[in-house]
Amino acid sequence: MNDASPQPNPDLVPAPSGSQWVVLHARPRCEKKLAQTCQQQGLLCYLPVLCKTHTYGSRVRTFEVPLFSGYLFGVADRQQRMFLEQNRMVANILLAVDQDCLVRQLVQVDLALQSGEAIDVLPYLEEGSLVKISSGPFRGMEGLIERIKGKSRVILNVDMIGQAIAVEVDSTYLSPS
Question: Domain residues for 141?
Answer without folding.
Answer: 130-176
